[in-house]
Amino acid sequence: MLAIASAFTRVPGYLDTASYGLPSRAAARAVRDAVRAWQAGTLDPAAFDPAVERMRAAFGTLVGAAADDVTLAGSTSQVVGMVAASLPDGARVAIAEGDFASVCFPFLADPRLRVDVVPLDGIVAAAATADLVAVSAVQSSDGRVANLDALATAARVSGAKTLVDASHAAGWMELSARDFDVVVASAYKWLAAPRGIALAAVRPDAAWVRPVNAGWYGADRPWDSLYGPRMQLSATARRLDTSPPWQLVEAGAISLELLASQAVAEIGAHSVGLANAFRERIGMPRGASPIVAVEGVDADALAGAGIRASSRGGRARFAFHVANDERDVDLVVHAVRAKARAAA
């Protein structure tokens, strides 16, 4: 069992981290404390700035970037939209067929851009002709893993820019964010933070990414930058920040620091190991991610057996993470086999 597992209240049969991750007890307490302070009128917005810096540092540790590389946002699509708006007219963008909407829609919605949709296994080759390649490190629908090493190499050769959505990878998959222009993750899934926080590592030489949503929090001294027209944005990735959700950031910092206290490789070995134990016991080949998509299984029908999963693309999607253990594997295998017998 992972050392950090004891920080969570185990919810037997919760296999839906791909929808949202469960908080640690400390993170949940931090949200409650912030709400109480808000209700009492004692919330001090400036007092949350250190928590934002802690999130930058912890996210950098988790994805292989420096704290100064990290920008704060509210969602993945916000960051992707900023990247799309930073591209020149007529730029060619390659996206993977069936990728998550937040990765695709900001480009598809921009009439200035030419968007090529390719199979996931063709995304590396697309770097040869694209101005930018955008892809999820791990597919939300079924857990397929992109060949990021090959993509980084192909992009270096061709000069293509790169955006990687690590929402289903950060925290359990070892990443090297500086191999890509932008690596973004919504923190409410595998990073176990509250919804409303996204973080992105922006390579220092990716000055082409413009602060499309420029605001007061993009300055090095934000509380001295509340009013215009004088604007002095940070020279670091902070220039791209949007202002923080005050009631959430302490919980976010606690969540990311907890994960960063355990080696990413250990979290990945635990989570993928449980997923593969499940795959093997129901006759599926081993995989490379903690997401398992099973044909012919209704996720909603498993609720009575104490299984929380989700339905994606006509399949039941199960996701194993730090708070899961072998008991969850036993529980879901029994439930899936029981439904299969009932349907036979």
UniProtKB/TrEMBL annotation:
Aminotransferase class V domain: residues covered: 127-207
One Pfam family named in its UniProt record: Aminotran_5
Superkingdom per UniProt: Bacteria
InterPro entries tied to this protein: Aminotrans_V_dom, PyrdxlP-dep_Trfase, PyrdxlP-dep_Trfase_major, PyrdxlP-dep_Trfase_small
Keywords: Lyase
Keyword Nucleus: no
GO MF annotations in UniProt: lyase activity
Gene3D superfamilies found in the cross-reference section: Aspartate Aminotransferase, domain 1 (3.90.1150.10), Type I PLP-dependent aspartate aminotransferase-like (Major domain) (3.40.640.10)
Protein name from the UniProt record: Hercynylcysteine sulfoxide lyase
Lineage: Bacteria, Bacillati, Actinomycetota, Actinomycetes, Micrococcales
Gene designation: egtE
